[in-house]
Amino acid sequence: MCGISGIIDQKPVTRNLLTSIANLEYRGYDSCGMAMLNGKGIEVRKNTGGVEEVRSREKLDMMTGNLGIAHTRWATHGGVTTENAHPHLSQNGEFAIVHNGIISNYQKLRERLIGEGLEFRSTTDTEVFVNLVEEAFAQKNDVLGAFLEALKQIQGTYSIVLLSSHDPEHLYCVKQDSPLIIGLGEGCNYIGSDINAFLEHTRKAVVLDDGEFAVISRERYEISDVGKREEREKSILQIDWDTETTKKGGFSHYMIKEIFDEPQTARQALDVPQEQIKQLAEMFQNAPHAYLMGVGTTFFICQMAQYLFSSLSKKYFPAISSDEFNGVVPVSSGELVVAVSQSGETFDTKFSLNVAHEMGAKTAAIVNVMGSSISRMVDHVIMQGSGPEICVVSTKAALAQALLLLRTALELGYKEGCLDSKSFQSHQKELESFPELISILLNEKSGFMRNLARITSSVQNWIFLGCGIYYPVAMESALKMKEVTYLHAEGMPAGFLKHGTLSMIEESVHSLFFVPPPAEVDLHNRTIIAIEEIKTRGGTLVGLYFEGDSQAKSLLDHAVELPPVPSLIAPFVQMILAQMFAYYTALDLKRNIDKPRNLAKSVTVG
Ligand code: AGP
Hints:
Blueprint lengths: L2 E7 L4 H10 L7 E7 L4 E7 L2 H8 L8 E7 L14 E2 L5 E9 L2 H10 L9 H16 L2 H11 L2 E9 L6 E6 L4 E4 L3 E5 L11 E4 L4 E5 L4 E5 L11 E2 L15 H7 L1 H10 L2 H13 L3 E5 L2 H17 L5 E3 H7 L7 E6 L5 H12 L3 E6 L5 H5 L2 E4 L12 H20 L5 H36 L4 E6 L3 H16 L2 E6 L16 E5 L6 H16 L3 E7 L3 H6 L2 E5 L7 H19 L18
Parallel strand pairs: 15-16, 15-17, 17-18, 18-19, 20-21, 20-22, 22-23, 23-24
Antiparallel strand pairs: 1-4, 1-10, 2-3, 2-4, 5-6, 6-7, 7-8, 8-12, 9-10, 9-11, 11-14, 12-13
The site of 2-deoxy-2-amino glucitol-6-phosphate (AGP) has 16 residues, from helix 9.
């Protein structure tokens, strides 16, 4: 999704503006640009393509000035063209804006302005707004007054930053349903659609809430309510993310770097204070009904949790995809909705949480990005502390979410008397050993996963299968495969095969089986039955299985054997290796791994 940056400094800001939009690249975009006030007026340079490409084509680094705004655009209104890229200038060139979100009533406003003789350069909703500011300024001769006057006329979701040649001392911004954060520096201030825009320069930030605008100078910032225009006191957020974790650290892609971060991510998830886990477990315990909600990967993480709660605490908490939540869950007062979101900005999840809140439900969330909307809108939030996840596809953040939900299920199981203190302690020990275990596994098995990917990278059709909790593992792994390789991969419960999909089976159709440890007798038996169903029909069998499983070993055509691990953590181990498999397959296919086509890191539109 689009990224916003703004900097006002005593020194030239060109280089920092460029770095800031490069640091927002991971959000996914198709064009970018910068606007700077350079003594003569506002200069805008922009084009389609990546930051590096546009930098060299448009010579962005030759721009000068000590305040500017920049943007990475993911097209919504209007195609991917230079004209549609941001920043947008008003007709007389005295105002420039960058904008995230959608101005829903822009067509009407555009028609009015055209009727009054205005000629638009782009087909965007954004250009309409900047011209409303210009129009209001002609009446008021005051930049802030014009900005607020223009705001009165628009509807929709937006975060906007405004730069004007009439005021070289300030940047103006506003937030409504689309994130915007101010970074506080020494003699300079920053604006970003997320903290990655300025994390290299400051760890102090102030998060804007919906309906707030800010006037930002080099030394000060003032935040007020758009409606009442009253100044608001806001608390300063101290960001504890490590910038080193955002660097690739010698890996060729963020995706594989982030997979190799997983031992550390797991440790961080296990370090989240037990008190916070207890609080969430109590919320589950006290609610007449509770629902787990996420979308894409986080939906599959919720599905995994559904199995964990069921087996460890004998409770059924349905997992629902955020985009379907409102259509199917008649949520009512006192019930609990627990959302999972890496970015904390996903539109569908935010929307459903809002509805749940309005209906009087209690809400909780597991979120990675500090200061994000979801982290601030729920009754109880657990910050997963996974650090920045830059690759568009989620790996380490997903693992941390699953571990936090596993910890909650264990806590609830203990509270409910389903686990005695001995088994609770022994599971905690298993969890403590997990980071070290995956660290060894990642190193020992990456070669095997690489080879498996080499053998199978020409396969066009995959079916990923598992039973019990391995079913959502299969679903999530198939999504990972699709996202990053663009191949067809379908996840399903192994028991589904005979109800239809078996008709597809022939040699070229490959199935990937997530085989549980043989100690999980029922799950294992059911998985072996499905493997045999495919074997009999001549399909090609690929699988991940644990040492000592002679049945799986003899049936699979291509397999990776894993060392024995406790049943509790076995599904997580397989999920991580499947992430690696998707990565290496995409590597062989020379895909754009960190930014797969058509995808964005945080989906802030509905
Ligand atoms: C993950 O690999 C995907 N890119 C996507 O499914 C993602 O998990 C989904 O959009 C939810 O995002 P969130 O965790 O930021 O809410």
